Structures are given as C-alpha cells and as structure tokens.
Fold this protein.
Amino acid sequence: GAGLGAFLRALRNRRRPEDVG
Amino acid sequence: PGLRRQEVADLAGVSLDYYTRIEQGRVGEVSPAVLTALGRALRATPEESAHLHRLAASPARRRSSRAQAPARPSLLALADSFAVPAAVLTPSLDVVAANLVWRLLITPPGQSLTRDKNLVRDHFLEPYARVLVADWSLGARAGVAGLRVQAALHPHDERVQQLVQELLDRSEEFRRLWSMPDVDGSTHGRHRLLHPRAGQYTYDYETLQPPGDEGLIVTLFSPVPGTGSQEVLDTLLAEHHRGTE
C-alpha cells in the first residue's frame, strides 16, 4: 500500500482535530 | 479521527464518488489541478503535496527502475573526492560506494569497512544503530520518509519492494511509521551520531541525484561548524592511519 490511494487515506486519517471545523 | 471522505471532497471541490474512486485506485489518471486541490484540502506540506503528484504520475512517466545498477566508477570517484562523509545509494538505500570517512564513521567497531549496508534496514534491525544514532526516532522517521519517496519513484524496483516487505515483517516500529503519510525531511536535515570512541558528530545531510540516471543518490553528512564534529572526523582518520601504518 504505497500508492496514491493509501497515501490520501493516511493524510485524511491524520488530520488533527483542531483543523476540523 | 481524521476527515470523512465527504469533507475532503467538499474542500477539494470534487464529488464524493470521484474522491472515493481516487482513494480506491479506480481512476486512471488524476489531473494535477485535482491533486493540488486535494493536497490543500488535506493541509499537505509542500513535500507531501509533491509526493501526491509523484504517486499519481503515470507509470510510463516514472523513472525506469533498473534495480542494482552498478555505480559508474566516476560516481565512486565523486564520493571519494568529498572531504565530508559521502556515499552513493541505490533507490532501496543500499550503500554501493562510500568514502573512507563515511565508512569510519558508520561501521560498527571491529567490523569490516566493506560490509554490505542498507541504511534503513540497518537502522531498524541492527542493534548498533541504537548505540550510534543519537535520536533514533528522528532517524527512523527520516529513513521511512526517504524510503517512501523511493518506493513511489520506483514502483517496479524489486529491491525497494522487497525491503519494504522485509521491514514490515520484522519491525513493529517500521510498520507503525510506514502507515503514516510522513514524507517530510526525506532529503535533508540535521542529525547526530554518538561514536563510541570519537564522540558526538553533528551533521547536516543533503542528498544529490544525478539527473537521468538509474536512480542513484549521493548523500553527504557535512559536520556542523562549531560542534566539534570536524574533530570527530579528524580523530577517526588519525586513528585509521595509525592502524594502517
């Protein structure tokens, strides 16, 4: 899983709570 | 934790269906504009955004991957010409050539200077790495970030893919880091080594890539002025020359 989809998913899962809003 | 797909799609101005298909690898080619919008939506750093574009490059446009291409003699001579520790690496971060100061600095005491090395495998699996590398976690992050970039540039390079699989199998710390999207600091940074005899070596590392080549990388560990690190190299070289007299 080093492809584009996996990387996007990892970025999406990483997003810090204070960023959401 | 994290964002829902719908939120990412909204922020990037694409449909949920389209975003979902990108994430599932069901879109042939994603436009640079969409990749840029996705990077912005996900608050990607410049390095992360560059990695998105790298991953999305069609296979034909990716660098060809002739694994294990032998380094040209002139590249080896280039490594030797540097006064600072310098090595030539393959895309899988195997050391194919290194100058004397690099080998004196990195090699475990009592081991042969010519022993095969892989920077990432050794970092995770060699006990000596925990002795030598002052901030092991920082080095681990940098190593994984570098390998992630190489894996994207060389998706068909068997050595890279084998190494990733071996480390996934053998190191829980590698598995944890590999699952994160970290690509920052993969080409430069400041690190420290604690050489058992010569002391603390603080260095800035930089990587150079000859254009249009087999993917070989030249990496330099330059001592930071004012940290006593040049003296570490001088000590190791003096010790070596005494030993070979």
Observations:
- The two ends of chain B are 62 Å apart (CA to CA).
